[in-house]
Design brief:
This protein is 35% helix and 16% strand. A 10-stranded mixed β-sheet has the order 1-2-3-4-5-6-7-8-9-10. Strand 6, helix 7 and strand 7 form a beta-alpha-beta unit. The longest helix has 17 residues. The chain binds S-adenosyl-L-homocysteine and iron/sulfur cluster.
């Protein structure tokens, strides 16, 4: 059998110290590292780095791939203001990320895992097979690719939300490492305040987050304010019930001084009644918290519906009447399967990706 050639390492796999050593072996001065890291963070290709000697550009191209991500598919929605990409990773798995453009900001929705082990029944990612954790550099490369695409449009990447595929706190070290790299002033330099980590609620890791001294925003996917319903909608609740999760989020708010955002995906007849609003009020009143309501984006085969717009407005009022701070999320990218996991679901249905044992889901 002919052995298949191993792909070149992606340059994002190398730390700045490793790059300095690699450059030194080629007789290059240490300041080249800063030049290279800065240009790589903006998504520049080696051949575009005209400030580097031609021989060095050729050496880089012979030694490294410019990204660990191969683009499989790109879709646009909302008149081009929302773009979604499906990427292939080493090993053949696919993940997706979404860029949403607004007048004064551009937000990247990033994936941290292939699939998700939590298995929420309303979520396309949760229905599909779990593949693996993303490596730190694979998360960073999503941000670099988005920065490159936005720069070509005269825009800047301003916000990153970990609301794509996967449970970020189940891939803790890679996610924290990626935030540090995305925030590195020598690279992308995005303020951690503009990064949101969304979690289904791994309470002990929420506590660990509080100790990271990284001032990002924490979002808790609540969806239900009583354990019996949350056990069903967010199955990790059986392990870390509300009495453990909410105090952990409080400790995060106390230690960081940053208010926690609680997400609530609106499922008609399931969690959008006046009783639900009252339970939510009882749980969060008086806390340093904010409620973000998300109209449900229907997923094939999931037994849930989104409430009609009048019911959404009614629920917003009922939550507000509880004295809570509440906003309704816009519904960017709903055409073309934008909700997390839906693009991959479509892809899996027609592919032989490993772990796609259940091709109808995704
Ligand atoms: N796993 C993490 C982050 C990714 S999901 C988490 O659950 O928080 C990001 C957000 O999108 C979560 O609040 C999740 O509940 C929500 N979500 C998942 N599927 C959705 C859908 N079909 N429509 C609307 N929101 C959805
Ligand atoms: Fe995983 Fe989040 Fe989807 Fe739940 S909602 S299955 S935690 S990605």
């Amino acid at each position: 059998m002919i052995p298949t050639a191993r792909p070149l390492p992606a340059i994002s796999q190398r730390s700045p110290d490793e790059l300095t050593a690699w450059l030194a072996q080629r007789g290059q001065p240490a300041y080249r590292t800063g030049q290279l890291v800065r240009r790589l963070a903006a998504g520049a290709r080696f051949e575009e780095m005209l400030e580097l000697p031609a021989g060095l550009r050729a050496d880089l191209a012979a030694a490294f791939r410019p990204s660990s991500l191969g683009e499989v598919r790109r879709l646009a929605a909302d008149g081009g203001l929302t773009t979604k990409k499906l990427y292939e990773l080493d090993g053949g798995y696919t993940v997706e990320s979404v860029v949403m453009r607004y007048p004064r900001r551009s937000t990247l929705c990033i994936s941290s895992q292939v699939g998700c082990p939590i298995g929420c029944p309303f979520c396309a990612t949760g229905q599909g097979p779990f593949g693996r954790n993303l490596a730190c550099h694979e998360i960073v490369d999503q941000a670099i690719d988005a920065a490159r695409e936005l720069a070509a449009e005269g825009r800047r990447l301003t916000h990153v939300v970990f609301m794509g595929m996967g449970e970020p706190l189940a891939n803790y070290d890679a996610v924290i490492g990626s935030i540090r790299r995305i925030a590195d002033p020598g690279g992308l330099g995005l303020s951690p305040r503009r990064v949101t980590v969304s979690t289904s609620g791994l309470a002990p890791r929420v506590d660990r987050l509080a100790g990271e001294s990284l001032p990002f925003t924490l979002a808790i996917s609540l969806h239900a304010a009583r354990d019996d319903l949350r056990d069903e909608l967010v199955p990790i609740n059986r392990r870390y019930p509300l009495r453990e999760l909410v105090p952990a989020a409080d400790r995060f708010a106390e230690r960081t001084g940053r208010r926690v955002s609680y997400e609530w995906v609106l499922l008609a007849g399931v969690n959008d009644t006046e009783g639900d609003a009252r339970e939510l009020g009882a749980l969060l009143r008086g806390r340093l918290a904010h409620v973000n309501l998300i109209p449900y984006n229907p997923v094939d085969e999931a037994p849930y519906r989104e409430p009609d717009p009048r019911e959404v407005v009614r629920f917003v009022r009922q939550v507000r009447a509880q004295g809570l701070n509440v906003t309704l999320r816009d519904t960017r990218g709903r055409e073309e399967d934008a909700a997390c996991g839906q693009l991959r679901a479509r892809h899996l249905a027609g592919s032989h990706e490993r772990g796609s044992g259940n091709p109808a889901a995704g």
